[in-house]
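Task: complex structure prediction.
Instruction: return structure tokens for all chains below.
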Amino acid sequence: MTRRYHVLAIPIRIVLNSFGDHNPNGMMYVLKENEQKVKNLVKKNPFSPVDLVQPLVIRANEGETIELLFENQLNFNTGMHFQQAEYDVCQSDGANVGFNKDTTAAPGESILYRLHAVKEGTYIFSDLGNPASGENGSNSNGLFGALLIQPRFSWWTNPETGKTMNSGVYADVHHPLLPSYREYAWIFHDEMEADDLTGNRPINHLTNQEEESFHGANYRYEPINRRQQLIEEGVVGPNTEGEEVHHDSWVFGDPSSPILRGYVGDPAKIRLIHAGVKETHVFHYHVHQWLSDPQDLNSEMLDSQSISPQSHYTVEPLYGLGSLQGAFGDAIVHCHLYPHFAAGMWGLNRVFDTLQDGSQCYPNGVPIKALQPLPDRKAPPKPTKLKPGFPNFIPGKVGYKAPRPPLGIKGGRGLTELERNAAVKNPRPGAVFVDPCPDNATKKEFNVSVIELPVTYNKQGWHDPKARIFVLDEDLEDVCSGKKEPEPLVFHTTAHTSICVNFTNRLPHILDGDAFQLVTRTYETGFHIHFVKFDCLVNDGANVGWNYDSSVLPGETIQYEYYADIELKAWFVHDHLFANAHQQHGVFGSGVVHPRFTEFLDSATGEEVARGTQITTRNPLIPDYRDFVLFAQDFALLFDNDGKPLQPPGFPGSNDDPGLFGVNYKNEPLQFRLGPDCDPAYTFSSYVNGDPITPILRAYEGDSIRIRLLQGAQEESHSFNVHGLRWLKQRKNLNSNMEEQQHVGISESFTMETYIPRAGDYFWAFETEEDLWNGLWGLIRAFDEKVPDLIPLSDRPEPLKRSRPLPECTGKKPPKAADPTRIPVKKGPIRYFDIVAFQVPFVYNSFGDHDPHGIIFSLREDMDAILEGKKKPEPLVIRGNVGDTIEVTLTSLLKLNLFPFQDGIYPYPEVKEQAFYPPSLRISLHPQLIQYDVKTSGGETVGFNGDQTVGPGESRKYRWYVDAPMGACGMWDMADIRNHKSQGAFGAFIAEPRGTEHLDPYTLKPVKTGTNVVLRNPFLPSIREFVTIMHDGVRLLDKDKHLIVDPLAGMILPPPDVDEDEVDTYDQGSRGFNYRSERLVNRYRKHPVLHDLFSSRVFGDPATPLFESYVGDPVTIRLVTPAERRRTHTFHLHGHRFRFEEKNLNSRTESFAGFNVAGAARNLELLGGAGAYMGFPGDYMYRSGNILWDIEQGMWGILRIHDNIQEHLPPLEH
Amino acid sequence: MDHQTEDNLYEELKKLIGEDLIVITRAVQLNLLGQVFRPIFSGTVSDVQHGHLTLSPVIIKMVNAPFYNFPFPISIPFEQVVSYSTEVPVDEVFPLA
Amino acid sequence: MSNQKRGLRPVNDTREEALVLYFEKHIGRRAFILTEAFPFMFIGKIKGLLGDIVILDVQTTSVPALEGKVWNIHIDSIEVFYIETGTGAKIPHLKEHSDEEPA
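Output:
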């Protein structure tokens, strides 16, 4: 079947909220049938939001062909590029790539796109005619939308009228066999131009400075700044401060941002889409949980999910709206990054318990729009006078803060008559309108307080004088007196427990001002929880929509009650009232829900405990484990020993990346760990510097461990890496990927379940450069023999008595690690690699952008050819097969005079807290995911392991073992993370199936290295393997040897008032693939036509790797990101899809891979081979999904798929 | 009980009482309190009946605990056995995921 | 020549029958059963048999809501199991660690 749409790209004024903030230069896609209507409405309503001004969302069914006539009414070439779909890349790419025909439309012209919806899901579309970032681009101004592909035979109706519909962000989707569901498109976007009513940039009324950038959803946002102004002006909310009522509909009425409406129990799909250009956001949705992959019931359960630009997920709340407990009321949906949340990136999921036919009103008199019940479900009861339904039984007063809940506050009020009518049979504190807890559940009670006290983060005395933390009441005295070291509160329970928390607010009314923050009256706090089941009206620990304000004033205690229905990993807790003001001071914690029947023991004494970031567990059925919890923090507002603020923002109250970093309220900056000889190679050595103050996770060799990874604060992504221990990405699915790295955003929670095969010190780190530099690293220490303060696991053999003393800090260079090759190899082939590290200039493109100080790993036999320019430098990629022992001999040939900054300060790309750190001439090579003994072959000098780096002229051996076909494994230097990685000291190891031959694709002769090979295996099809190493933080000079200060230097259409200070440290630097970058600005200067910038007809092929294939050839892309900055990159390949998890046949299939940040490694097997199932030849772009600041800065290339035999490219034998 | 059908498997396994055995059964994965594992059981044959054998002590090979000593014996119906071997040492390390 | 052709019962049938008999012999004893299918684990007392279905008075499963109930489990679907015989090892009594006894 063919479905047809006629879509226009039009200029439109987008009013972003009811305060009149607007984008005068908005652009949108719209159906032709709505064109006139929307234009008329906007003309009539220049200062209020118009419903029809929304991102275009159209629908079709799986298996259909969509013919889309696209008409361009903008004054530059635009198009529609679809992700996920299969299409003829020469007819329907919506771009002008390589030697394809240009498939953008000129102003006033039309083009027909034909797309094949091979699979249900979210097909984002966006413009590639104008790839400029910033306000002169098309994407930031709104030129995006989505085609939502439903199951076959579906149809959809308008939720308000029940009539069929052609477009709209909300629809009810129906099916003859499947349940109907509410479908909500939630489209995050950022960096849109926003002007106030006067046409100027909005000014923050507190700081008097320009407001934060736009962060919103579906062309709307509801900033705290605007709402707070109404308080300041005395219009509403007497005696309130601002943040605590930011989401309160009692004070302000409903926000302009999206409100997703449904009835209790309705099945729903939120199509979560990131159409923005820059940031990685964290989608959080109160009260509900969902599976990370709706197709795979063994996938991880989430209630918070990071999402990077041009990627998408389907959020199907488990048990429907209101979750298992059938909660009703307002569940807030928001970006958990607090500065974005404050900027307005939030909305509501409104779950009604009574029928809305359009005759009712909200408490403020605003009519409640009708909402059709889903046809296959019983309609909810009609509201009556005695039972008016949510929100009309709540005794609030319009214009004032929401009322406190009944029963919850100790000494507080009981129920009103209307509340009693709405309540459950046995209402009690925390469970008034639904009862989440079954009678037979185990009961646990915790008394928790939130307090303020100074906390010292490191040995140098960096401290937060106003730290705010949760503590158990029984620990109050010990923590406040300094007897107990403050750590984030982690309390432990088992599944099937009903948890009661008595929460007391012991904070001062005032959060005092300083260089970072303005004085804030943080007079009430709550205890907001993730994952567990609860009554969202009274127990959310928040103040949301028309719900109650479930927080308490200083000195008051509120009782909360939750049910942990199943094993729930580590649930996140934090305050929801003043989170933007004080969560970065430490107001976060976690409750870990363990398997049933687990006991929790103090790891030192074996006594039972209820809390702790490191404990030991005992369970009668499953293996015991050590339980470790790590919280990443950014925006840590620290002062040094002299009281000097560290990294204060431009002005107090600014959310522009203030402060530093922490992990569990600690950090161990590298700048303080240079030993007497000032060699960065020994930074991580405990021999030289003693152990770090950051967590050392202690266990015995052979122990099972679970690491709970969370992020407590506040705005940025972090990349957690463990060296030498891997885990299942989805811990309940054995076909899931094994990983050693995990991206984490605030409020996300991951459990890494693994065990420690060998004794030694294992390195963990948040391994992007700036995080690591500022101290986010530590150790996992596995003892070989008994130590006094660590009980053994009860089901493991008793450790041997200590036969030799534990190593100690000597202040001197660490001893050399033993030679791993002294032990004979028992079985299997050995592959030898003689690798040298040396310096050589890298030319990044034909425009002369270059790095004169490149550091490369290469085979010794290739070194001369590279130095003489006969062989082009590319990152070293070596391969081994399963069963192989890999023996690497590494030699350093680094020379001091070839380093750019021999004085020890690396000025750009910079990191926060720059300090002396001279280049090391030592180097090492650390691989991911394969097996080795960390004491000899981890390729790093860590803890009390011996030295595994090599100095100039020296060599040493590493021995690795390939035990499984892991595919892509990153490989990088660990001797000097500041002076080596930006310069290229990385590569990849590929672990291939047994019996695989690795051939040059052009000669079919065996090769030992290379980013482009053919894999031949007697049992498997021959495969083309393309290794793409995505990297950033590069320091380039142009052809005239002038420093290129990317990303701004790479902007095609920079704004006139470009301010370099606006670029966060972690956005600094150039970027690309495999030491190449096709920066668009070079092309634009030569030929200033935006839509031609990807064209090979105009410019020739890009400098980035050109991968060639024939239609139908099996292709695997190995995608590795070894370096180095904190900004994540999305990878997108046009016209193709791949499984998220290559070994899991139930895995979702997508055309993007998100979160490419230091340590990420992925294997993308193209479904249907090159050209996808339909086999279209042509030039397919691979690229970053970040319009700002990746594509312009050169992160793109071409996969060329031929249909005719080419002389230079031998075909694969099939 | 009528055992007119001779079951060579039963006879063979009987001889292995007291010996170490690794047995793999049909399921893709099993789930104990949220902990998933492939059905790979390694241990000493302690009893053989006409419909099943029992391993005691028995190690369940889990990705996060490859040498997990299960706290009580495990009996395995013959009809669930996919493969077994007497030649894989109980302490053999091999990739499980 | 296969058993069937010789007029003998297939070996699979005898094995299944032997297993049924084994469960029957231990009526009244505690059993531990793992199945690939949800809810994966049962611990309870064998009450009886219904052909090749074992009737189990279930004390513990992976899902608390399904406990304290009688479950009928198809013996063919039992992946592995253990039955207390009175002499050998015991299946642990799984205790939840509570602040108070559940009401």
